[in-house]
Write a structure and sequence with these properties.
single chain; alpha/beta; Rossmann fold; 2 domains; 6-stranded parallel sheet; globular; binds uridine-5'-diphosphate; 7-deoxyloganetic acid glucosyltransferase; EC 2.4.1.323; quercetin 3-O-glucosyltransferase activity; transferase
């Protein structure tokens, strides 16, 4: 009689390979921890640069040594360590750095690693990882860390062009509805397309890069998305027409919290995985503020703002009379002749009774603090999910890529916030802050609370994301038994 193969086999060895950016690392490291909790052997492959920062600002050794066989390895991202990596460097340098230098590093690592890798989970924006996996015959699952809506729009761009709905013909065209993205016909305007679709040249290299990376996805063995069926069901159905095996297992930060809490109780150890030094003093400041009285203002890890935009935002906040917690990352304010940062010192001084400014905040803790009543966000997908889970309404000021679309969904589909896309004017800032924090507070609080409830249910035992993660874990176990490189050894240990 054949014994149960999966219980006899050694744990699967999974390599997690994030795209080298904070937002991508955040969700990938959470997935890595979830798989380690399931008993898998994990290798997390970081870029040298990001790993150095991760080690500098977090006690990763203490956190991950509890998982047997959890290892961090590093390769180059193709740029020298002293390169500033500011703005869209990863788009401008994609071929030159990532494809040309990171790809061989990945291949070499996979050829030499012991025990061999049974399954790669790679960022869905790194098509070169898929090429390497195919060459080495290792199963590969894609994890697309941006929103499912954006995945579907990136995928549909060739059809939008084919239908003559792109390029956009000038600014008066921005509110035109697009009819060629299935499932989004009633709300997707030109204005909500990813920022690079505003190029008048549809042969633009960035458009081509996004389309190329996204259209490779069906070649992967499966696709993981950081969302829940309850949040993005209709779009997931559309995506499944192209990639039939989709695992919606998010929001991952909430799923990890649920599973850690179940294992260790309320006092579980929360790992922040940040690449900047966290300023926790803002929590003490929040402790002194009344419930739902503060608007948290933060635009993620890549965005830069001009000096003028920051001043407009700041006046809008000040004039709204609402207390605010503002994050201004070092080197993120662009001014003439390098005069960016001085404005921050000036603002801090002038608004110390009403606002608190930090370089980098413990965002999850901030959003879950009772004093926070709204989130002024750029709508990076992690930030959007963190706000949803915490039940905090949003004011959306998208910067690039999927953010233009996420802000539309937040305001028009989910109705848990307002969209300030394409403007930055102190009067509009003031009005929107007052709408969310005062005038329409009750309705926004209610809709955000309902959204939080269904989303949090999805990551509890029996919820859709919880079950989907269990399926993913089981499918990787089965997959690892079939991996050609390890099959021979594994078969030896199975008695018939
Ligand atoms: N973040 C943080 N502190 C900050 C600003 C951001 O911890 O002061 C975290 C935030 O919680 C989120 C991530 O950085 O998980 C940013 O990812 P997101 O996808 O929102 O945006 P990106 O940085 O990729 O544009």
């Amino acid at each position: 009689m054949e014994k149960d193969r999966s219980s006899q086999a050694p744990p699967p060895h999974v390599l997690i390979f994030p795209f080298p950016l904070q937002g991508h690392i955040n969700s990938m490291i959470k997935l890595a921890e979830l798989l380690a909790l399931a008993g898998f052997k994990l290798t997390f492959l970081n870029s040298h640069y990001n790993h150095e920062r991760l080690v500098k600002f977090n006690n990763i050794a203490a956190h991950f040594e509890r998982y047997q066989g959890f290892e961090f390895k590093t390769i180059t991202d193709g740029l020298p360590l002293d390169h500033p990596r500011s703005g869209n460097w990863f788009l401008d340098m994609y071929e030159e750095a990532l494809e040309l230098k990171m790809k061989p590093g990945l291949r070499e690592m996979l050829e030499n690693i012991s025990p061999p890798v049974d399954c790669i989970i790679a960022d869905g924006f790194s098509g070169f990882a898929l090429d390497v996996a195919k060459e080495l015959e290792i199963p590969i699952i894609y994890f697309r860390t941006s929103s499912p809506f954006s995945f579907w729009v990136y995928y549909s761009i060739p059809d939008i062009i084919q239908a003559g709905e792109l390029p956009i013909k000038g600014s008066e065209d921005m509110n035109r509805l697009l009819t060629t993205v299935p499932g989004m016909e009633t709300y997707l305007r030109c204005r909500d397309l990813p920022s690079f679709c505003r190029e008048t040249d549809i042969e633009d290299s960035i458009i081509k890069l996004y389309v190329k990376q996204t259209r490779k996805s069906p070649q992967a063995d499966a696709l993981i998305l950081n969302t829940a069926e309850e949040l993005d069901g209709p779009i997931l159905s559309q995506i499944r027409t192209k990639c039939p095996r989709v695992y919606a297992i998010g929001p991952l930060h909430a799923q990890l919290n649920t599973r850690l809490k179940a294992k260790h109780g309320e006092s579980y150890d929360h790992f922040s995985n940040t690449l900047w030094e966290v300023d926790k003093s803002c929590i003490f400041w929040l402790d002194k503020q009344p419930n739902r009285s503060v608007i948290y203002v933060s635009f993620g890890s890549i965005t830069s703002t001009s000096r003028e935009q920051l001043v407009e935002l700041w006046y809008g906040l000040l004039n709204s009379k609402t207390k605010f917690l503002l994050v201004v990352r070092p080197n993120s304010v662009i001014g003439k002749d390098g005069e960016g940062e001085d404005v921050v010192v000036e603002l801090m001084e002038k608004s110390k009774d009403q606002g608190y400014i930090v370089n980098w905040a413990p965002q999850e803790a901030v959003l879950n603090h009772p004093a926070v009543g709204g989130f002024f966000t750029h709508n990076g997908w992690n930030s959007t999910l963190e706000s949803i889970v915490a039940g905090v309404p949003m004011i959306c000021w998208p910067y690039f890529a999927d953010q233009q679309l996420n802000s539309r969904v937040v305001s028009e589909v989910w109705k848990i916030g307002l969209d300030m896309k394409d403007v930055c004017d102190r009067k509009i800032v003031e009005k929107m802050v007052n709408d969310v924090m005062v005038d329409q507070k009750e309705e926004f609080v209610q809709s955000a609370a309902e959204m939080a409830k269904v989303t949090n249910q999805s990551v509890n035992v029996g919820g859709s994301s919880y079950s989907n993660l269990d399926h993913l874990i089981e499918d990787i176990r089965i997959m690892s038994l079939k991996t050609p490189k390890t099959k021979f050894l594994r078969n030896e240990s199975i008695s018939i």
